[in-house]
């Protein structure tokens, strides 16, 4: 009789055959040994084939999923930028791939070129890509000083009428700063003001720069601020100005903010002078929610309190050394995903990024660690996978 083990146990077929073979009577082993051994080997081969088949099925399912994801994918223009731009852009591409974000990247280079008319423009292929895709992710671009052509950032804003510059500032658990509990957003008019680029020499030694404020641009950014507050469960919009000094220009901006507030009674509206905001910002930034302001003020204030900023510099001194921190561009990319209503991968990537910083074990030098950009990126990728 073959031994099948204690009652209630159900050993696998290979184990049962092996036990059966060794429990056969001696006279039967000679007659049946080869057959039993052959049957045992067949079972082993079957198990190996079954494992291989399972691997093939899993790979096929992943391939089908990838094909479906790519077939539904949106094409996004990627402008890696200068300095550390290519490194941090590569990090974002890797993280998006691991998170299976349905995006196809169309990479373009942006450098100023001069048209036959003498006007400075961005390369036609970059403009055509943005015109077709409507959405782009941009790394840092170097801003030349007295180089004979305008800032590429300014040129991009004017070319595509990128009128709203939205910069969130949020305290991140695990990264120590002078303040905690900060959660505010600055919304900066992006196309005019002192940054219009309208300046000229009146006489030798005298330069005039024009601050351009228009009714349409002021109304548009004010309405955007209130719409943003409403759509993002924000309660207060504060208009930042210097209408007490620049009565006409900032006065026009402030009037359009007041008009927009009249149409959004569910959002509280306050007004505050720029210098007062700066004072309160360094004393207690937690008192602010959404701030809307002209171009120059937004540039100053966002630099004042930014923990990380999507418009940081090109950092040429560390370019190519694998030392850059991709967090700013990554969280800008997360904002882009939410704009595209891809909320699930946006949340997954954001959680992985914040948990990596909170854990504190794999951080770039600027965050207090000793890890390289590639190691920080790999850790975020691991945490993205762990959420599946």
Automatic annotation (TrEMBL):
Alphabetized InterPro entries for the sequence: IsoPropMal-DH-like_dom
Cite the Gene3D superfamilies for this sequence: Isopropylmalate Dehydrogenase (3.40.718.10)
Q: Which UniProt keywords apply?
A: Magnesium, Metal-binding, NAD, Oxidoreductase, Transit peptide, Tricarboxylic acid cycle
What cofactors are annotated for this protein? Mn(2+); Mg(2+)
Sorted alphabetically, the Gene Ontology BP terms of this entry are: isocitrate metabolic process; tricarboxylic acid cycle
Which Pfam family, any one, appears in the UniProt record? Iso_dh
Answer whether the UniProt record assigns the keyword Transit peptide to this protein: yes
Q: Describe the family membership recorded for this protein in Swiss-Prot or TrEMBL.
A: Belongs to the isocitrate and isopropylmalate dehydrogenases family.
State the function annotated in the UniProt record.
Catalytic subunit of the enzyme which catalyzes the decarboxylation of isocitrate (ICT) into alpha-ketoglutarate. The heterodimer composed of the alpha (IDH3A) and beta (IDH3B) subunits and the heterodimer composed of the alpha (IDH3A) and gamma (IDH3G) subunits, have considerable basal activity but the full activity of the heterotetramer (containing two subunits of IDH3A, one of IDH3B and one of IDH3G) requires the assembly and cooperative function of both heterodimers.
Q: How does it assemble?
A: Heterooligomer of subunits alpha (IDH3A), beta (IDH3B), and gamma (IDH3G) in the apparent ratio of 2:1:1. The heterodimer containing one IDH3A and one IDH3B subunit and the heterodimer containing one IDH3A and one IDH3G subunit assemble into a heterotetramer (which contains two subunits of IDH3A, one of IDH3B and one of IDH3G) and further into the heterooctamer.
Identification of the protein by name: Isocitrate dehydrogenase [NAD] subunit alpha, mitochondrial
């Amino acid at each position: 009789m073959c031994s099948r083990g204690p009652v209630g146990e159900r050993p696998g077929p290979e184990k049962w055959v092996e036990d059966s073979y060794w429990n056969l009577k001696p006279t039967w082993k000679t007659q049946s040994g080869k057959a039993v051994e052959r049957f045992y080997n067949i079972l082993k081969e079957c198990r190996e084939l079954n494992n291989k088949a399972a691997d093939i099925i899993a790979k096929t399912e992943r391939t089908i999923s990838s094909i479906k994801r790519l077939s539904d994918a949106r094409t996004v223009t990627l402008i890696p930028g200068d300095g550390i731009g290519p490194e941090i852009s590569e990090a974002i591409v890797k993280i998006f791939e691991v998170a299976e974000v349905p995006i196809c990247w169309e990479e373009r280079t942006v450098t100023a070129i001069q048209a036959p008319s003498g006007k400075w423009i961005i390369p036609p292929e970059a403009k055509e890509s943005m015109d077709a895709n409507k959405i782009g992710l941009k790394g840092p671009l170097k801003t030349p000083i007295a180089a004979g052509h305008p800032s590429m950032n300014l040129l991009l804003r004017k070319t595509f009428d990128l009128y709203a510059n939205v910069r969130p500032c949020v305290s991140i658990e695990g990264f120590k700063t002078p303040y905690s509990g900060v959660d505010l957003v600055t919304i900066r008019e992006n196309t005019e003001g002192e940054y219009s680029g309208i300046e000229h020499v009146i006489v030798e030694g005298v330069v005039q720069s024009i601050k351009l404020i228009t009714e349409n641009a002021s109304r548009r950014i004010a309405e955007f601020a209130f719409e943003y507050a409403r759509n993002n469960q924000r309660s207060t919009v504060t208009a930042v100005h210097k209408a007490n000094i620049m009565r006409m220009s900032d006065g026009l901006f402030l009037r359009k903010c007041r008009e927009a507030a009249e149409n959004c009674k569910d959002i509280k509206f306050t007004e505050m002078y720029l210098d007062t905001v700066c004072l309160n910002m360094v004393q207690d930034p937690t008192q602010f929610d959404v701030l809307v302001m002209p171009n120059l003020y937004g540039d100053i204030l966002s630099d004042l309190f930014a923990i990380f900023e999507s418009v940081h510099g090109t950092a040429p001194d560390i370019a190519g050394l694998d030392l850059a921190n991709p967090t700013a561009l990554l969280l800008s990319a997360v904002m882009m995903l939410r704009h595209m209503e891809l909320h699930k991968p946006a949340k997954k990537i954001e959680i992985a990024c914040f948990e990596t910083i909170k854990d504190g074990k794999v951080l770039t030098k600027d965050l207090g660690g000793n890890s390289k950009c590639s190691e920080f990126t790999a850790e975020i990728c691991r945490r993205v996978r762990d959420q599946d």
